[in-house]
Every structure is written in C-alpha cells, then in structure tokens.
Amino acid sequence: MPLARYLCIFINVGLGEGSALPVGVPVPWPSATPPTGWLKCNGAAFSAEEYPELAKVYPTNKLPDLRGEFIRGWDDGRGIDTGRSILSIQGYATEDHAHGLPSRSTIVTDATINFYFDERWVNSGTDIIKRGNTNDAGLPAPDYGTFKTYKQSVAGLGAAASETRPRNIAFNYIVRAA
Hints:
By secondary structure, the chain is low in regular secondary structure. It is built from 3 helices and 6 strands; from the N terminus they run αββααββββ.
C-alpha cells in the first residue's frame, strides 16, 4: 500500500490536526517517517516550549524509546508484574523452568537414551566414554559402551535466537506532539 494511502487513512480516522487521540499516546505507524505534527518514539529530547502539551505527558522532555520494544500494560495492583511504575523499562527474562532428565537406571533399560550424567563418564570431544571401573558406591560399574555426545538444542522446536520473543511485526511507534 503506498504511503499516500496510509496518510489518507490516517487523516480520515481523525488522527491528524484536532484529533480526539490525546497528545503523547504511542501509535504504531507503518512508515519510517512520521506525519507532520508527530514524533518518533526514539528516546529523543524535545522542547517544552515547542511542544507544551507533550511536556505535560512526558515531563522529562524526553520521548520513550520504543525502537525494538514491546509495550506491556501497567500492572496497577493486579499482581502479575508488581513493583513497576508507568514508563519503567524492564529487561528481558525467561521464566524459570526445569527440564526433566532420566534417572541413571533409565540408561540401562532405555535404548533411546544417549547421555549419562555421572563423574565416571567423560566427554572425549566426540564421544562419552567410561572413565572408571566403579560406580558411586565403589561397586564394579557395568560397561555400557560408548555414547555419543549430547547437545541441547532448540532446533526443530522453533527458531533459535539471542532472545526470547513472540512472533511480531515491526511498526514505527510515533506520538502526536501537538
């Protein structure tokens, strides 16, 4: 869709001059360049003299930097994301969780298991090999042979990346400045 058509939609839904949308509300915009009277939410400082209404919403005279960020609703006492104030920034996190591993006895009976967690086994770089002849109790350790190394991977379970994120589409957040 050409930019001119987006601008037409923008004006026709009342987001231009005299808009019912309050000054300072972030709006996703499908272009790199905001329309006249709007500013990018890129963390830039602005003049309170030039944009007095915007300064009432952002009294630090600095716009929020929403580049590459998701907006999250403020908890406001609900108890899901406690201890945060409005406009506070929160770093990334992955919820604490655990992955179950089979017990040592499983390795004897389950031919699909290809790893063994015990100080009696050592990673040679390509294989897991038996290091000693006794188990933790000092009894003779059965010879299970050689196991291939185990590497945890998310390949096949979804896309691997340097962050945890939901599917998304990139928009440019802008605010009405006047």
